[in-house]
Queue: 2 jobs
Job 1
Amino acid sequence: MHSKTLAELAAALKNGEFSSEELTKSFLQRIQQHDGDINSYITVDEEHALAQARAADEMIAAGKAGPLTGIPLAQKDIFCTNGIKTSCGSKMLDNFIAPYDATVIEKFNQAGVVMLGKTNMDEFAMGSSNETSYYGGVKNPWNVDTVPGGSSGGSAAAVAARLAPAATGTDTGGSIRQPAALCGVTGLKPSYGRVSRYGMIAFASSLDQAGTFTRSAEDAAMMLQVMAGFDEKDSTSIDHPVDDYVAGLKQDLKGLKIGLPKEYFGEGLQPGVADAVNQAIAEYKKLGAEVVEISLPNSHLSVPAYYVIAPAECSSNLSRFDGVRFGYRCDEPKDLEDLYKRSRGEGFGDEVKRRIMIGTYALSAGYYDAYYLKAQKIRRLISDDFKQAFEKVDVIMGPTTPEVAFKAGEKSGDPVSMYLSDIYTIATNLAGLPGMSVPCGFADNMPVGLQIIGNYFDEARLLNVAHQYQQVTDWHQQVPAAYK
Ligand code: GLN
């Protein structure tokens, strides 16, 4: 059962090959058996999952099933789930039980989806290696000495090890695409505003977007179909029609114009990664696509601009964790100031504190113009680069990451080298564009991801472009030996 795609699982449930309860039990068993090795889940609530599965079986029996009814999924522990712990990977929220569901969770519930559990993540989604979680690091199922990427590393690792058929994630600067690449699964970050952020714990509100980890682009289309749509509870949600993503997977690629930004193939790119990506491009040419060299001249400014804007927004967002309303509270505070200081000092980890301090500094009266305002101007230049590129091409392709999964501990003492893991993904978030990472080969025996960037709300095309490649290659079907 664990080797089937979402489309295959849906068909099997409909034909009565097995029930949702049987399917859910089999995944719960796999989690019990294997998750000790990779630490991809923070919370697994078996009773809750099985109750949802039985309810789904009733929906199926009554002929009321939708495409995902009865399928168990894993949810990143950043989405509020009514009655079940939502930690965001932090000691600060270790005791937090949300009194409501995030819109994404509510949509899955309505669709009859079963929640297997909440996946591990970097604390407050800050990181590229999943080493900053209060619940311990996540390991890459392809080699447990290496990291799965971050911040949605738990979701990526769970899907790669077949401990969930698919999972959600969030991507602020690369946190879906980078771990998808490092774990050899398909990752989709939709356009900013496509999926509601209501009930998704905020890191950097102008960049955060929810998306998917799946075995294939077809599965991503099935999940996005449920997740996408306008939500009046999220003021940044955009009222734009939702395409039929699954029906859109049948277009051939003749005449598709692919832009290759020269800045994504330069210094710092591991040769094995470049080879795999170039082979994928060659495959696209065989499918009838045309390749055009383009330039995104302000690419080198994306990491510096991001590391002003994201910390600035996080310093504001995380001020709500004050030891008063919810989350961690220190023992026996002397007075209010002591309560704030110690609750925040004890509840947040080092990376989160680093970001809050950078953000507070960048927003302070004397430095606002020099840092925050300048970063916002650069952000506009980066979006304009993409706008010009999309006048000439339909999609942009390149590597998702400069290198394959690195060893745990290798970059944790060097924040700047860690931040550079997202050098090819961050610009997309600054511009608000959709992007995917699709498995396209191996280097040093570790998976490589091909990044595909689309124009605003062009998810249907993006998914089809990924799907056509997956019809002629089988990189996305590779499974780490220990989890077959
Ligand atoms: N690695 C980036 C960061 O640490 C991106 C994280 C994310 O996308 N949530 O900010």
Job 2
Amino acid sequence: MSTRVILDCDPGIDDALAIAFAIGHPGIEFTGITTVAGNVGLAKTTANALAVASFAGAPGVPVTAGCPAPLLRPALDAGHVHGESGLGGAVLPAPPHGPRDGHAIDFIIAEIAAAPGEITLVATGPLTNIALAVRREPRLPEWVRDFVIMGGSAGRGNVNPAAEYNIWADPEAAAIVFSAGWTVRMIGLDVTLRARATAAVQERMRSFGKLGSELMLPALAQYADSNDSTGEPPVHDVCAVVSVIEPSVFTYTPALVRVETTGTWTSGMTVTDFEATGSPNALVATDIDADKFWDVVLGTYGSLAGSMDQRP
Ligand code: RIB
Ligand code: CA
């Protein structure tokens, strides 16, 4: 029984690796990709999503573009981390087609409304599209099978000591999302910084044919994540997709998460209260079995590489 997934993302190197994992894992039915401005501008995040899906052998996964900027704040990209294109040093063939007509918000609402309880919504970029979707359709939290984000941190941030990039980029959107009535499964820096593409991992990627040589390795080679002083970049977004299909990789603790939107030095902070009385709004990932994570991820990439290399 496969799990239907919509991935809202801002490719972005680790988003690209998350897309490849979702395509490669047999337990995931990839219902669609929606894109948002974040790591790079919307035109590039959309082009990158199309290129990665096609390169990985799934040109039929619909890609729908969303918001070009945060709700209120100016768009502040992370090109210094993901490179000017958003895919680091990876240069992929042009995809056979462009994005679907329409807006990501409408795609998310329509697909989830048509299949209540069936679709897991995963967000690995700023939460602008998600915030507007739940504002337009407040019943979305009732209809999703699950809602997972790569974002936030119960501890330190990565943009500054307080804030993680996806939340920092659009804190007003994140505040709307965390107060929409669902339980947010928050895969934050607390665990993603322990999912590093080590030298041994990258050595394994060399055996993945063009998936390794044309996408993964050149992308990772230019992934200048601010937490990466080791040359072993964290694959943050892959964690969110893995959590959908391999729940035992992560351990969760219920919490009340509030998003700071007015702090001079703390805007975008996910203020995480594990002791709050009353009902929690989040399950915060507080541990990761990193060995199991990489077993699943590299196994999936290996089978994807095999299927890709069979094609002309
Ligand atoms: O902080 C890491 C997150 O910000 C990842 O999703 C990365 O792709 C960037 O969007
Ligand atoms: Ca991302």
